[in-house]
Amino acid sequence: MKSTQVLGRILRYGKPYLIYLILALLFAAGNVALTLYAPILIGDAVDCIVGAGQVDFSAVGMILIRLAAVTAGAALLSWLMTLCTNVVSYRTVRDMRSDIFQKFADVPLRYIDQNSRGDLLSRMANDTEQIGNGLLQGFSQLFTGIITIIGTLAFMLAINIAVALAVAVITPLSLFVAAFIAKRSHTYFAQQTRDRGEMTGYTEEMIGAQREVKGYGAEERTQQKFEEINARLYESGVRSQLYSSLTNPSTRFVNGLVYAAVGVFGAFHVLSGRMTIGQLSSFLSYANQYTKPFNEISGVVTEFQSAIASARRVFTVLEERSEDPDAPDAVELRHCRGEVRLEHVFFSYDKEKKLIEDFHLSVRPGQKIAIVGPTGCGKTTLINLLMRFYDTDAGVIYVDGANAMHYTKDSLRGAYGMVLQDTWLTSGTVRENIAFGKPEATEEEIIAAAKAAHIHSFIKRLPQGYDTRLGDDGGNISAGQKQLLCIARVMLAKPSMLILDEATSSIDTRTEILVQNAFTSMMEGRTCFIVAHRLSTIQNADRILVMKKGKIIEQGTHEELLNQGGFYFELYNSQFSGTANP
After folding, report:
1. Contact predicate 528/477, CB 8 Å
2. Dihedrals φ, ψ of 16, to 5°?
3. pLDDT in tens, 111-130
4. What is the per-residue pLDDT across 292-340, written as a single tens digit (0 to 9) for each?
5. What is the bridge-based pairing of β-strands 551-556 and 543-548?
6. Can you give 16-52 as a three-state secondary structure string?
7. 543-548 and 497-501 as β-strands: parallel, antiparallel, unpaired?
8. Spatial distance between the Cα atoms of 54 and 357, rounded to a whole number of angstroms
9. Structural domains in the chain, sorted by start
10. What span, in angstroms and rounded, lies between the C-alpha atoms of 549 and 530?
């Protein structure tokens, strides 16, 4: 995406706040007009001081009063201009972040799975902040800079055309210098934003995995990896800052030449009587004010380069294809019976690596279906397909006799209740976490669900009971307690079908028995899919599917599969006799 296209998209975000931009421009024009009027007053005051004993104090006094009023007015207008530009800046960034957060909810899970979460967070937080600081905040300097250049040039032409033309000819050299440097710094700013995103992603990942890092003694390896990323960020940062830091002194050097030329050239005009000393004083002030915006604009150009690079990363997310919408004729799945059928289903994450091929499955309402098999055989993938987190490459999944594609995603997913091995809790109260899937639940319903999950007594022992706030992802409670809360959440929702992905793996044996009994009563009349690694937990399943390389190679009850003496028999014996997995 070209820089002009990126800038255009940013400006479109600011379009709802156009009135503030217009007000900012008007305030900037007023501020510059008053600021440029001040040197005239100062020049008039200088001309009132002819020599010793020849000072017109009354005239100087009146000029000083007007000067004070002009200065105060310029300060007020400057504050109002900054206020307006800040409103545009912060609201635009707010809207961008809202759109990115919404985009994260709209994109397919494939996109989330394939990208570093830390990098995605960096785009939403750091890159949008850079856009606000480097691009939108720079509008105030851009407004005042352009108007100041035009205004000072007009005032200088009114005083002396020859000197003014000399200033106008020399000063643009600073813009050429700034453009030359900015062109070379853009590449390094773009690299810097990529390296910053990678560092954020890696840091977020390692902080969240400190137990594993310490447990495996991997501190040195992770530190070396961090140092490698940090070194690249340092290199790109130094290069980008080196080029950008050359801009200001280079333009100041050109501006110094301008100021010196005005002083010398103007002095000759004073000696020849074509200018007064007061006018020369005003002219020197204007020359300084005329060159100052070139410095500011060159600095803004540098910030623009960084902001444009950040904006590209933001818009890359926003341009990502959203999850396929529901079919135009999609209907709500209501009163789901729990009949599920898969016919000729094909699916793979990578088209070069086949996973599920020509998969068939028929499940009657209320059946408990267990799914077992070695790692990578497609167990969790099957769950992703049932929930339509991923859509099949070919084949059809039927729910209650109708193609699942004909139901709205929300209603289809709402028919399932999931308890996964990897628990997830939000930073909120215990009550909010249990009621996450049913926010309108009453207190009695929440407590009943907690009791069914055998966690009510634990919750009552917490400092504030159900109002106790949990840390990030429930970091202040044990893994088993987190899983029990997730189970309570599903029990409260009372879905038509259940998906249990090793749902009791973090629970002690005694609690597991209690929870299994609760599940038994809750699953009565409901279809249930159980992904299991511990085969002892699925012996009462109505049917056990044994998967290998994306296919069902065996199926039957626990006893039937043992009697067959096949792959399930070997898996079962490997867990209870200590032999290795085949």
Report:
1. no
2. -60, -15
3. 888 887 778 888 888 888 88
4. 777 677 667 767 777 888 888 889 888 888 888 888 888 998 888 889 9
5. antiparallel
6. HHHHHHHHHHHHHHHHHHHHHHHHHHHHHHHHCECCC
7. unpaired
8. 103
9. 3-318 (1.20.1560.10), 340-576 (3.40.50.300)
10. 18
How do the residues of the chain divide into helix, strand and coil, expressed in percent and rounded to 5? 65, 10, 25
Write 375-380 long-range contacts (CB < 8 A, 24+): 377/547, 377/548, 377/549, 377/550, 378/547, 378/549, 378/550, 379/501, 379/531, 379/547, 380/501, 380/531
Residue 580 confidence (pLDDT)? 41
User: What integer pLDDT is reported at residue 245 of this predicted model?
Assistant: 73
Instruction: Quote the CA–CA distance of 266 and 164 in Å, as a whole number.
Output: 10
Structure tokens belonging to residue 306: 């960084």
DSSP result, 130-150: HHIIIIITHHHHHHHHHHHHH
Residue 449, pLDDT > 80, answer yes
Q: What is the DSSP-derived secondary structure letter of residue 331?
A: B
Amino acid at site 115: N
What's the token pair of residue 447?
């407590």
Write b or e for each residue in 128-161: b if 16 or more Cβ atoms lie within 10 A of its Cβ, otherwise e: bebbbbbbbbbbbbbbbbebbbebbbebbeebbe
Residues comprising the chain, all counted: 582
Give the other-Cβ count within 10 Å of 74's Cβ.
Answer: 19
Cα–Cα distance, 61 to 55 (Å, whole number) = 11
